Structure formats: C-alpha cells, structure tokens
Amino acid sequence: MAIDFKALLGRSPNPYVILDTKFVLVWMNDAYLRTTMRSREDIIGRHMFDAFPSDPKSESFSKLYDSLRRARDSGKTDELALIRYDIERPDGGYDVRYWSATHTPVCDDNGEVEYILQHTVDVTELHNLRQMRDEVDVVRRANAVEARNQDLMAECRRMTDMFEQAPGFVAVLEGEDHRFRMTNEAYLDLVGRTDILGMPVREALPEVVDQGFVDILNQVRTSAEPYVGHREKVILAKEGDDAPSDRFLNFIFQPIFDNDDVVTGIIVQGYDVTEEIAYEQRQRLLIDELNHRVKNTLAIVQGLAGQSFGSVEGSQNARAIFNGRLQALASAHTLLTQRSWGSAELVEIVTGSAEATAGDLIERFEIAGPLMTLHPQTSVSLAMIIHELCTNAIKYGALSMPEGRVSVTWEVEHHEGEEHLRLVWRESGGPHVEPPSRKGFGTRLITSGMSTESGEVSMDFQPEGLVCTIKAHLAPAL
C-alpha cells in the first residue's frame, strides 16, 4: 500500500517544517503555520533566520543554528529539549515562546543529507507551569527564610531585653581602642553618660585613663586573660555633677574571641558595691562603738567589785575568780566583735578562751576538730564554760601538775535531720580525781551554761582526769 507522507504530515496536529541544507524553508504543514502565526506565502522559500529573525549573539539563535548544523553535518537526529524562541505577532509585537525541537536529516538515494525535518512542540504552557512551581518553591523557601528571620529577630530582642535587664552593669568594647559597641542602662547610670556608643573608652571616660583602667584593658587584649577587680575604687565624673564621685566595683574584663581565637573585644560586667561598703563601714563604726561601751561597762563592773569587796577580809580569791570570768566574757565579746557579731569559728573560741585563762599553759593543750562556726549566743556560753574548765584545771586538775595535759576535741552528730555539736574536754596526767562533795558556783556555771542553747553539759570525774562532754544544737550560722 502506497502512503502519501506529505498528506499525512500535512494533516498532523503537530507542527512540521522541512528545510534544505542551507536552512531555507521548503515546506511546512498547517499546524506549523498556526503555531507560528504565519502564512505559507510569507515564509516559504525564505531562510529560517530571515523568516524568524533572532539576534545572532543570542542564546536562542546559537542553540537553533547549532542543532540544525549538527543534524546536517552528522546525518543524525539532533534534539533540543528546551529553547526559548520568541515569535513575532501580526501586530508587530513578540510572544515569548518555549519549544522542544527535533531535527531529523532526510537523505537522498546516495545517502547524502538533502533536507532536514523539524518537528517542534510548543511547551510554553508547560514551561510556565514549571516556572510557577519553581516560583511557588521560591516563595515557600522565602517564607521559611522570613519565618526564621522573624525567630532570629525575636530571639535578638529577647537577648537585648535580657542584656538591658541584667542585674549588673554590662558593656561590650570592640577594637584596639576599646570602642563601646553595646551598653545596658545600668552601665550608663554608673558612668553618668547617655551617648557613648561608638566612642573609645579614652574619649568617653577620660577620667579613668589616669586611674590605669585603659592600661588594664590593653593588658587583657594582649594577654587574652580576663581581669577580675574586687571592690576596686573608681572615680567617675558624671555629666551634670560638680565633682567626681568615688564608686567601688566588683567587675571582670572578659576577652571576646573570634573563630581563630583572636581577641576582638572585651565584655565589661560587674556590680556597684559602693552602698554595701558604706553599710559595712557604718556597721563597723557601730560595732566598734558598742565594743568600746561594753568594755567600759565591764571595766566599771570590775572597778565596782574591787571597791565593794576590797575591804572584805579574805575576798582576794573571790575577786580574782570574778575578774577572770569578766576577762573571759570580754575575750568572747572581742572575738565576736572581730566577726561583726556574726558566726565565730569554734577553734577560735576554744583557743582564745584557753589562752586568755591558761596563758603559757596553752602549750599543754591538744585542740582538734572539724572547721565549723557557732551562733553568737552559743559562742559566748561556750567561751565561759572553757574559762571555768581552764580555771579548775589550773587549780585542782591536770594543769596543776607539770605532766598534766588537756585534750579538747569535737565532732558534728546528726539526729532527726538536725546537726548537734559534741565537744569533749578530757584531762590527763594530773592528780587523782574524785567527785566533789558539793557543787560550787563554777561547776553550776559549767553544767547550766548551755541550757539556753538546747544543749547539755555532763561532767565525769574519772580517777585519771575530768571528762566534760558538751552537747549543743547547732543553729544556722549567721
């Protein structure tokens, strides 16, 4: 059966065009004419690039020309998956069109390429849909980036708010001249300036230069080691103040490093402790005044006792004992004064009371126990008990003989979630000990001295030496 291929291609809904080897249009079907919006008389016999002009320097021209040339020269089919080639409209304007083209060489009986069959498919709508999809993807990615940017901005605002609301003063310095990059409100209040961002420290705070703080900043930058200041005095000249003010600061100059561990800046962070120091100075003044008055009172009591009992026959011994107790009380008071009437170290209480009473005999004491502090009231009671025990040991016990010794040890015991002190006074090397026939004032002072401290005192008069055990509930330290 003979097939009329020309008629077949002519009725095809797909655009076909035949070109000779010089790329002159020699035949096209109706579908091609409809697609290109041309008439057969307008384009047949014309060169492809005359009928459908394109800039020889454009990508459209080079892609189409190279594909036709490859098909002609190689004798093999050449395909263009996608090419933009705009088509001129009858009104003189141009439609942006995208094509998929196949160029098939048609050979003569000798196998020489005689014609090139171009089959084109208009893929403009498909390309636009693909572009829309890409644009949707771009929009989606842009929305995702925008959401991330919004999160970063919110996080930045939170960090800025935290920076501004930091309980201490904070500033960030950058560069070799230490320019202010960031400051919080507390820092501006401290230095008494409002507009220092971008300024080097030397210009923003000239009064600190001679105080050595710029040199310290240079040292931190050079050494890459932080500098910590504790209660350092800084003289600041605030705007509007007639005279500079003295401030005391706890602060740190912390170097900032980049990814290569090179110092790029310094964080300044700290607290103004001026009021705290002023309070401590006032407290010290009051405590010193209190200590002075208490000592004067004790001296008056001692003087009154001397005057009252000076003419009483046989009162010398009683007066000495009384004076010793006053001295023990004064010693405990002095220790607490040194501690600003806060908690006192147990080892200091025992050692101080024993030295005040026994003097050089302290060398015959063995004092050992864990480091711990006692409430002021407990400290005074324990000091008085140690004084009485020392006095008795000197008069009747181990310290009355050259070989005698005293051991004072303590430990912390735990009962029902609470801590209790257990202190043991143990004498050895002294005279034979027997329980006293009666309790004197000193013994009663010892055994009742801890009653107000939720504690107890027991005295065991063992033949080889007195053993006194003191137990007391440990109140929280001040």
Concise summary:
The chain has 478 residues and is of the alpha+beta class.
Topology:
Layout: H1 5-11, E1 16-20, E2 25-28, H2 30-36, H3 40-43, H4 48-51, H5 59-74, E3 78-84, E4 87-88, E5 94-95, E6 98-107, E7 113-122, H6 124-164, E8 169-174, E9 179-183, H7 185-191, H8 201-204, H9 213-223, E10 227-236, E11 245-257, E12 263-272, H10 274-309, H11 316-338, E13 344-345, H12 346-358, E14 365-368, E15 373-374, H13 376-395, E16 405-415, E17 418-428, H14 441-448, E18 455-462, E19 465-473
Parallel strand pairs: 14-16
Antiparallel strand pairs: 1-2, 1-7, 3-6, 4-5, 6-7, 8-9, 8-12, 10-11, 11-12, 13-15, 16-17, 17-19, 18-19
Helix pairs in contact: 10-11, 11-12, 11-13, 12-13, 13-14
Explain the overall architecture.
The structure is a single chain. This protein has helices spanning 5-11, 30-36, 40-43, 48-51, 59-74, 124-164, 185-191, 201-204, 213-223, 274-309, 316-338, 346-358, 376-395, 441-448; strands at 16-20, 25-28, 78-84, 87-88, 94-95, 98-107, 113-122, 169-174, 179-183, 227-236, 245-257, 263-272, 344-345, 365-368, 373-374, 405-415, 418-428, 455-462, 465-473. By secondary structure, the chain is α+β, with helices and mostly antiparallel strands. It folds into three domains: 5-122, PAS domain (Beta-Lactamase, 2-Layer Sandwich), CATH 3.30.450.20; 169-272, Beta-Lactamase (2-Layer Sandwich), CATH 3.30.450; 332-473, 2-Layer Sandwich (Heat Shock Protein 90). It has a five-stranded antiparallel β-sheet. It is rod-shaped. The N and C termini lie far apart (118 Å). The model has no long low-confidence stretch (mean pLDDT 81).
